[in-house]
């Protein structure tokens, strides 16, 4: 915590909004474009009030043309602007996948280094609101598959407050996943904005017995599980990946080398996921440090069902994290 | 549907120097493409190779209406546009060879020619994908109060893509200066216009978006020049988009893998009677702007320039394996 900062309480939503406001104030080239970001105030009220504050040239409502406006954002970045493109939810990002995978991620390379694409694309993601199969996607693994992109996941309020600002200093396309289910959560953070290093994963809680590696909505859930585990005498380390591409191997391996056990928790479907990659790399890079096989707790491989009890059963929950950690550590009473 | 021929259009100012420069440009494109085909059969050029032969009047005529500060975006059939924009022929040939002296350091090949110093933003090989980029470049210019326009070439195949319609709507909605140039060469790969568009009068797509439009005979250089001048002038003046359809024809196959099963040889021969280069030579000779001797000297100069490009590519070097991961992220480029 910065010595100069006082402690403030704010929601994840408010943290993102303040980050956008800071970005707009810092650089005239920055503008926000997205569906309903202006007059409506943002589908999730993240940008509420910003239109009045900054005007329609900097808070641009766009038509429902994901490929069109994401492509235009990429083009504007090529033309020297600093666009923040908001895709209302990750679920619609597939309509813009061509622009992201074929243009944003490749132009630097195809041009032999002549073009940069300094675009930031934010999208609300994830599960937990009974929105059923088409509105509950966790597409982090899809984007993290693509060389040329930097893929970030906002798992805490500190990151919600500052990650965007670092992303806007990056010369390459940055995809930022934010989480709808976290928007209303309140947390205490320092009023002083702490710079976020978007190349590094972050240990959210230090521990000795096991590394629980996660990102996004898994972070708070895992911290809660870690608290419960500590009551049972298990000292878990919680590692927030934060950057899903390129992965911060150094921090991951350092944690595993310390605890000798790893559990990876994510909401995305298990097959060909972030956890698949992290697990493979741990096995490749520090197999001999392991005292137990790497375990994973991921989304169940089913299109998201609508009923609450089935939705909850489709993604990792705190109690499951606690139970699997106890099992890995062969804790008494399991 | 062919579009207005030059004879029906107000006379363009033409003189010997300009006329011969334009002819040189079209003949250079054709000879360059013939040489590329030859180098493809010799396996010096690999991958996909899409030749521009037959369509030379479109790139030459439109590019003449553009200024150096204007942005240009193209499809994967873009050698003609690159040459007409002034990208070095040697750098283009070296790019197709995959040599690091190429205009994209060899990373792109035939379909991805880039030269940012010429405001040439590529060869894009996903049909329709560069149209939103063009709108974005024009949006940046508008926001930064720069006066240039953005010219975006694409084929009639792209006009069936969603990205075409999204880009047209955005350009008109945001009032950004994009000159959309639809090169209708009658075939989306092997699918004829009538099999891919419910309304084959392509120009009619523009009014639905409130965009001004024109159709021109793309085999007639003077007609293309005039139409492009008028269109670009309007875009500069209004800051709004314009949709220009150039009806043209590729004499060669879609790519080097195409057996041309979808069109009759007689159709190709009919279009060849309207060869843009032959037509323009006829025009220049009729107006005594070109002699046989000058034509012969020009052909010789072009032969030398194309050979020079090949020599440059041959002498080029391969990027070392150690550089493989360059240009993925900026910090390693």
UniProtKB/TrEMBL annotation, chain A:
- InterPro entries, per database record: THDP-binding (IPR029061), Transketo_C/PFOR_II (IPR009014), Transketolase-like_Pyr-bd (IPR005475), Transketolase_C (IPR033248)
Tell me a Gene Ontology molecular-function term this record carries: oxidoreductase activity
Q: Which cofactor does it need?
A: thiamine diphosphate
SMART domains in alphabetical order: Transket_pyr (SM00861)
- Keywords attached to this entry: Oxidoreductase, Pyruvate, Thiamine pyrophosphate
Domain called Transketolase-like pyrimidine-binding: residue spans: 10-185
Q: Does the keyword Mitochondrion apply?
A: no
Name this protein carries in UniProt: Pyruvate dehydrogenase E1 component beta subunit
Automatic annotation (TrEMBL), chain B:
Please name the InterPro entries in this protein's record. Answer: DH_E1, PDH_E1_Alpha_Subunit, Pyrv_DH_E1_asu_subgrp-y, THDP-binding
Provide the alphabetized UniProt keywords: Oxidoreductase, Pyruvate, Thiamine pyrophosphate
Q: Which cofactor does it need?
A: thiamine diphosphate
Give the domain of life.
Answer: Bacteria
Q: Which GO terms describe its molecular function?
A: pyruvate dehydrogenase (acetyl-transferring) activity
Q: What does this protein do?
A: The pyruvate dehydrogenase complex catalyzes the overall conversion of pyruvate to acetyl-CoA and CO(2).
The UniProt subunit note reads as follows: Heterodimer of an alpha and a beta chain.
NCBIfam families, alphabetically?
A: PDH_E1_alph_y (TIGR03182)
Name used for this protein in its record: Pyruvate dehydrogenase E1 component subunit alpha
């Amino acid at each position: 915590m910065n010595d100069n900062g006082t402690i403030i309480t704010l929601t994840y939503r408010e943290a993102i909004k303040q980050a956008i406001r800071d970005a707009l104030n810092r650089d005239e080239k920055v503008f926000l474009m997205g569906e309903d970001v202006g007059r409506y105030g943002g589908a999730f009220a993240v940008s509420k009030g910003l239109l009045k504050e900054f005007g329609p040239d900097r808070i641009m409502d766009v038509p429902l043309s994901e490929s069109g406006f994401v492509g235009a954002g990429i083009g504007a970045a090529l033309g020297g602007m600093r666009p923040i493109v908001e895709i209302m939810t990750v679920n619609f990002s597939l309509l813009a996948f061509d622009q992201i995978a074929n243009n944003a991620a490749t132009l630097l390379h195809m041009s032999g280094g002549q073009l940069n694409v300094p675009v930031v694309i934010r999208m609300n993601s994830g599960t937990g609101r009974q929105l059923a199969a088409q509105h509950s996607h966790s597409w982090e693994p899809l984007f993290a598959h693509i060389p040329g992109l930097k893929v970030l996941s906002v798992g805490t309020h500190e990151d919600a407050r500052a990650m965007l600002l670092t992303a806007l200093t990056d010369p390459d396309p940055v995809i930022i996943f934010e989480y709808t289910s976290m928007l209303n959560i309140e947390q205490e953070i320092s009023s002083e904005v702490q710079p976020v290093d978007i190349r590094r994963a972050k240990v959210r809680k230090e521990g000795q017995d096991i590394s629980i590696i996660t990102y996004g909505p898994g972070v708070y859930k895992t911290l809660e599980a870690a608290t419960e585990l500590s009551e049972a005498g298990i000292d878990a380390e919680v590692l927030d990946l934060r950057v899903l591409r390129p992965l911060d191997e150094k921090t991951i391996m350092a944690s595993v080398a310390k605890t000798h056990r790893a559990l990876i928790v994510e909401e995305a479907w298990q097959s060909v996921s972030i956890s698949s990659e992290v697990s493979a790399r741990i096995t490749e890079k520090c197999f001999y440090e392991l005292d137990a096989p790497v375990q994973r707790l991921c989304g169940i491989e089913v299109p998201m069902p609508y009923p609450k009890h089935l939705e909850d059963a489709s993604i990792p929950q705190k109690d499951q994290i606690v139970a699997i950690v106890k099992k890995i550590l062969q804790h008494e009473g399991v | 549907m062919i579009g207005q021929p030059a004879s029906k259009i107000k006379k363009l100012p033409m003189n010997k120097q300009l006329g011969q420069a334009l002819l040189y440009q079209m003949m250079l494109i054709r000879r360059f493409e013939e040489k590329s085909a030859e180098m493809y059969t010799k396996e010096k050029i690999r991958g996909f190779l899409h030749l521009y032969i037959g369509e030379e009047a479109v790139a030459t005529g439109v590019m003449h209406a553009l200024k150096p500060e204007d942005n240009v975006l193209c499809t994967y059939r873009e050698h003609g546009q690159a040459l007409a924009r002034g990208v070095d022929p040697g750098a283009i040939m070296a790019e197709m060879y995959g040599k690091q002296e190429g205009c994209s350091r060899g990373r792109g090949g035939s379909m991805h020619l880039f030269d940012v110093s010429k405001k040439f933003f590529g060869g894009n090989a996903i049909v329709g994908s560069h149209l939103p980029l063009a709108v974005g470049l024009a949006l940046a210019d508008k926001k930064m109060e720069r006066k240039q326009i953005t010219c975006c070439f694409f084929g009639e195949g792209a006009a069936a893509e969603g990205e075409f319609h999204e880009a047209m709507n955005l350009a008109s909605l945001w009032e950004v200066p994009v000159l959309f140039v639809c090169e209708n060469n009658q075939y989306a790969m092997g699918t004829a216009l009538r099999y891919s568009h419910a309304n084959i009068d392509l120009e009619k797509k523009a009014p639905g978006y409130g965009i001004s439009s024109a159709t021109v005979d793309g085999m007639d250089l003077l007609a293309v020049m005039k139409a492009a001048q008028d269109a670009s002038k309007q875009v500069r003046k209004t800051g709004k988009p314009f949709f220009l359809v150039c009806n043209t024809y590729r004499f060669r196959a879609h790519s080097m893998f195409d057996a041309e099963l979808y069109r009759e040889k007689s159709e190709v021969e009919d279009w060849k009677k309207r060869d843009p280069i032959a037509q323009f030579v006829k025009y220049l000779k009729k107006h005594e702007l070109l002699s046989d001797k000058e034509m012969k000297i020009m052909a010789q100069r072009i032969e030398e320039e194309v050979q020079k490009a090949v020599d440059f590519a041959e002498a080029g070097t391969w990027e070392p394996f150690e550089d493989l991961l360059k240009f993925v992220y900026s910090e390693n480029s």
